[in-house]
Structures are given as structure tokens and as C-alpha cells.
Amino acid sequence: MTKGRLEAFSDGVIAIIITIMVLELKVPHGETIQDLLPLWPVFFSYVLSFVYIGIYWSNHHHMIHAVKHVTGGALWANLHLLFWLSLVPVTTEWMGETHFSTTPVLIYGVVMLMAAIAYYILAHCLIAIHGRGSDFAKALGGDAKGIFSAVAYVVAVPAALVTPIISVAIYVVIAAVWFIPDRRFERAVSLS
Questions:
Q1: Is the pLDDT reported for residue 143 higher than 60?
Q2: Is Ion transport found in the keyword set (predicted)?
């Protein structure tokens, strides 16, 4: 099976996710800069989630570009990832509207942890298709950033019960780690 449909469908879903997030931003009630201040939690949540979705889109693009073909299992693994990403707009708005209250911050972390797990499953499904000795598997390597992220989410989720700002800080750190472009798949594609 070719990978083109998987890539096109994923790009469309991710574009819709970003569109939904931006449509949830509200216009301030007033005309001054001070009228924007009450909206900072919603805007911060939006920026954080926009960065996350952008990171997933970029890494997904590079990963799929590095594979030769996909199977039905890979399609389902990809849908699993898209399912968790599709929940990001809801948890983003909930977190921002409640000014980073405990439960929304905790649920946001659960969604991000599940998206990270789904990405891991997709990557390993693609390794199974192409083989452990493939260029794709070599490019993925030990996936230190992926493992770091999952561990950090596991810490961040219960931390929300102590103080949600710790969890939000961890989410920002994870995004910062991934904000630096991951060139593993680009190098694998250029070598093959």
C-alpha cells in the first residue's frame, strides 16, 4: 500500500485540528490592550497546543516521508495517533478557560501522553514493516526525545494534583525539547 493517502489524510486532519483551535479564540470585549489581559490563559494554551500540533505534524511528515510503504496496521496506528490529537482542541480550551485548573491540566497531560504513546506505536509499526535493520529503523534509533517526553508526561499528570503550574511548566519544557527540529528522518531520506 502506498503511503500517499495516509500522509494526505493526516495532513487534512491536522489542518482541521488547528482550525478548530483558532476558531475557539474569542474576540476581546473592548478596544484596549487591557481588554486582552483576561484572555492570556486561553491564548497561552492555544500557543502551547499550536506548537505541539506543529511538532507532531512536522515529525509525522518526516517519518512518513522516510518509509517506503504502509500496511493496514499502520493505517490504524496512524488513526490512533490522530484520535488523540483530535482531543487537543477541547483540552486546550478547557485548560485556558479555567485558568489552568487541576483537572483540565491533568486531562491535557493524559491526552498528550496518549498521543506520545500513539506516535511510538506508529513508529514501531513502521519498523515492523520495514525491518529492524532498515534505514527507517536506524533513523528512529533509540528515540531518546520520545522516551524523555513520555516519562515527563507521566511525571506531569500527577503533578497537576499538587499544583497545576508544575505540569504546565513540564509541558512547556517538552515542547521546547521538540521545538528544535529532529533531523533523524531527513538524514535517512537523504542517504537512501
A1: yes
A2: yes
